[in-house]
Amino acid sequence: MKLSVGSEIRGPIRIMTPERIEWYDSAMLSAAKGELTRVTVNIHTDEDYAKSEGLPAIIADGMISTNWCSEMMIEHFGLDYIERGELRTRFIKPTFLGVTVSVRGRVTAAEPQPGGAVVYKLDVWCEDETGLKLTVGDAKVEVRPQ
Amino acid sequence: MLGGYISDLEAGDVFKPVEYVLTPFMCSEYAHGVETGHEWFHSARGGRQMRPPTMIHVDKMRILEANCLKERRVSAGGRISTDAKGPDARIHYEYHSRQHSAAYVGERLVVSGKITDKYVKRGRQYIDYYLEVRTADGRLVTTYTDTTLLRYKKVDPK
User: Fold this and answer.
1) What global pTM score does this model have?
2) How many other C-beta atoms can be found within 10 angstroms of the C-beta atom of residue A6?
């Protein structure tokens, strides 16, 4: 992998579906409880409840796009990211059902370190099919020589 | 204030830590739910099974449920009832995790944290968290800050 300032990386391109929202919410509850648990009613799964809370419609859990950004970092930086990476995401626009989400990143700094490591800093974001950014953030990872 | 709903928490509240043993199911189920297929999270093939780094957010859910006794989202299986969930739906606004080491299946993890701020911005109330996860023998795994909107509806200015 050879990255420099301005290099772009890409993550998954996925349509936000009710199934994906349920997969995430149920998995989160299951992991917290330690046994299979299925999400029922919340603002991510129930249109009426979402509207009762003032939202225009069901919105996806922000952790879905965060996880897709994290997946992009894992694919490009592997254990260096898992063991000492940093990821920040801000959910600046709601992600509604049916939106095609593209995950992207751009290197903003590549700083050589003593011993041959390089600290990469990146902007990361998720955008819809029109290029509108829904989730924005940044990431940092120190890549050590093999 | 600890012991009530999440919306009752105040800046300066320090959570009672929670401990648990990381299981293969927790890692694999979460990875499956977010469509991360890397074998590191699903089995011990090639080494030791580890958890996805974003699972700090599951720890947030754990420590909130343990410290906000009126919130029973996990134990109620995601069901909403008057005694299972706070009065308003919350919306996550910012996630910020720093990884310090990987967490492996079989390790006992200790989650601790506090409320660093609670404020109104543009008519909406937010809460900031700081959490950290260590192994029971003290190795730092993840530090985390989080901003959550406590309710989408705007605060009545009166």
Assistant:
1) 0.94
2) 9
Please, what's the largest Cα pairwise distance for chain B? 61
Report the number of distinct structural domains present in chain A. 2
Whole-complex ipTM:
0.96
Residue A102 contacts residue A74 (beta carbons within 8 Å) = no
SS3 B29: helix
Q: Which of residues 4-63 of B touch A (CB under 8 A)?
A: 20, 23, 25-27, 29-30, 32-36, 38, 40, 50, 52-55, 57-58, 61-62
Domain match, A83 and A29 both? no
How far does Cα B15 stand from its chain's mean position? 12
Please give chain B's pLDDT, 158 residues, in tens.
Answer: 999 999 999 999 999 999 999 999 999 999 999 999 999 999 998 799 999 999 999 999 999 999 998 887 776 655 544 335 667 889 999 999 999 999 999 999 999 999 999 999 999 999 999 999 999 999 999 999 999 999 887 766 65
Class of domain B6-149: alpha beta
Place of tokens 């420590």: B63
